[in-house]
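Agenda item 2: flavin-adenine dinucleotide complex prediction
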Amino acid sequence: MTYDVDGIPVEAKAVDVAVVGAGQAGLSAGYQLRRDGLDFVMFDHAPRPGGAWQYRWPTLTLGKAHRIADLPGMPLGTPDPARPASEVVSEYFARYEREFGLDVRRPVDVSSVRDLPDGRLLLSTSEGDHAARFLINASGTWEKPFWPRYAGMEAFRGRHLHTHDYRGPDEFAGKRVVVVGGGASGVQALMEIAEVAAGTRWVTRRPPEWVEGPFDEELGRAAVAKVDERVRRGLPPASVVSVTGLMLTDEVRAARASGVLHRLPMFERITPDGVVWPDGSSYDADVVLWATGFRASLAHLTPLGLRGPGGGIVMDGTRVASDPRVHLLGYGPSASTIGANRAGRSAARAVRRALRGPGQPPGDIGRTAPNPPGERPEPPRDDRHAEIAPAA
Ligand SMILES: Cc1cc2nc3c(=O)[nH]c(=O)nc-3n(C[C@H](O)[C@H](O)[C@H](O)COP(=O)(O)OP(=O)(O)OC[C@H]3O[C@@H](n4cnc5c(N)ncnc54)[C@H](O)[C@@H]3O)c2cc1C
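Presented output:
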């Protein structure tokens, strides 16, 4: 199809559904789309299968991960918990893509998604332009590490590091390390760094809330409900730990008893030599490790103007309330492996209903043929899109 975009003719490949990201969320959606025989394409700019798990530090073993939920239709099995989660999950995802014939186009970057005059969405990718009726966006958070700002940060003579770039404790041998952040990543990194470092300090904004494990379904549901309530109001999703608390494991109990997990309030400023608290006390440090989490990686959706005045995107389930063509997976309540699974299924089903009507039964997993062009129903048009005249 040829479109006139700002006076420039753009040749775009038509597709019913485009999925951006092939992590847990994207693959779950792909499974369901494939099962329903829909016409879809999946893009991922990472070099290999595995979503963000392929980048996680090697000392994050499967046994140390919270819990990795099975993808629909194929269990993870019982891999060795001592193996790095990055390896196990990448192998699992690769097997999954093969088993269900999910043709993930990679490495293909989706640089922007824009409105087209006929109500479709134009995806500009490193593999050419695509015009999709629906977008299932599952681009995760890994590529948007969150760095808070503190006075004096730039003047620090030591090293600033985010968990995004953490590769394990070895490089901290003999160093004095400040770990910032009260989430599971900070706690795990701190415990392993403390074994080799000359000294550590742990600072968090709020006192940690320790929770007796295991992290069962009931706790999971309560956490999801809290995040869901926020994003429905258009507020940015809260941090994971603020809704789950920190699990007490034997290792954590031991680290608390030994003083490694002694929490200090946030420092006030950073000096060339270390950090200073409001009462004037200080700690000289070689490294500040920012275990301060991630934000949704959605820069490619900026042209759609989805963010509201609350700073977040008002969501109705997986669907963007202001733009029913767009589903966000791994955003807010679905930012966990279990949440991503559910979201993938529900987004794919919503798209199927919109394309085919509510009475249509699901197709078979083996069916891959796209809908014949003449049989495709029009995408739903909300008021905003109805006002836009189709291209000549
Ligand atoms: C350190 C850490 C540990 C975690 N541990 C757990 C755990 O133990 N259990 C749990 O349930 N959850 C855990 N989580 C949460 C985790 O993020 C989710 O569980 C889940 O893996 C996220 O899946 P996803 O599909 O949403 O995103 P991702 O796995 O991040 O996949 C997103 C994919 O989108 C691709 N992509 C992004 N932007 C573009 C673009 N513009 N164009 C093309 N491709 C793009 C990326 O290459 C990537 O492959 C953890 C998170 C972190 C940060």
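Discussion summary: The two ends are 12 Å apart (CA to CA).
Owner for follow-up: CH.
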